[in-house]
């Protein structure tokens, strides 16, 4: 059976494209009776109905997105940010200060990674904090430490140059945190 369909171009000005024909693979030799063939008027109504249904659904979806409640802020306050950042700084310094042969290193590294992941997940989406030097330096230090332990394992010591740079960033973050930056 051969049917004719009109297509619209995807531009802002709708215009009909030339009709396309499709062949039904089940019966290529028999012709459909006249009462089963779509008329041009019913085809246009069907196309118009489909277009209206699609546009209405899109408008309703966009309206739902606009009317949706804004997401709750992750950080409760500036004081909470300062407190949690200071705690992570303390854990970072404690972990970096452990001796290589200390049996508590793997558990300290696991605890540091957990707290740093929590800190990053909580504060990286806060637009007010992204410009702060304390956030930037702390994020960089945590990224360097996490990257080292992910690559080399929790028992691998951090090289002296990397450790010095990390501690420098932590010191800078702590000073900026005390200044409210």
Task: Characterize this entry briefly.
By secondary structure, the protein is mostly helical. The chain has helices at residues 40-67, 78-97, 105-123, 127-130, 133-152, 160-178; strands spanning 2-5, 20-23. It has six helices and two strands, in the order ββαααααα.
Question: Can you put this structure into words, describing what you see?
Answer:
The chain is mainly alpha-helical and 181 residues long. It has helices spanning 40-67, 78-97, 105-123, 127-130, 133-152, 160-178; strands at residues 2-5, 20-23. Strands 1-2 form a two-stranded antiparallel ribbon. The chain starts with a strand and ends with a helix. Residues 69-75 have low confidence and may be disordered.
Please describe the structure with a list of short key phrases separated by commas or semicolons:
181 residues; mainly alpha; two-stranded antiparallel ribbon; 61% helix; elongated
Spatial strand sequence of the major β-sheet: 1-2
- Principal-axis shape equals elongated
Strands, count: 2
Based on secondary structure, the structural category is mainly alpha
Task: Bin the helical content.
Answer: 55-70%
Low-confidence stretches: 69-75
Biggest sheet: strands, sense, closure?
Answer: 2 strands, antiparallel
Distance between the termini: 74 Å
- Report the radius of gyration as a whole number of Å: 32 Å
How many helical elements? 6
Report the portion of residues in β strands. under 5%
- Helix-strand pattern: EEHHHHHH
> Average pLDDT value?
79
Helix/strand layout:
Elements (H helix, E strand, L loop, with lengths): L1 E4 L14 E4 L16 H28 L10 H20 L7 H19 L3 H4 L2 H20 L7 H19 L3
